[in-house]
Amino acid sequence: MSEKYTNPFNYVIDSIWASLPEKTADEIATFKKDVLTGFRDSVNWAIDEQIKWIDRHVDNARHMRDQYRGEQSQESTSNPS
To answer: Residue ranges per domain, the chain?
Structure first.
């Protein structure tokens, strides 16, 4: 084992990749990267959608509060006690 490997697992993984034909290793690596990129894009999309919905809910809640306050102020001016 070379001295550049401080983690023996990295040596084993590199050995497995080295045992594959070069074209096969390149195709598997490309496939794995494409899958991971797709996963990351999906997660980013889901997070962006959640952020968008949070903003919508907060805006709707603000509108509901304003509407409620408007109704309360109309009731208080029409029913002076």
So the answer is: 8-78
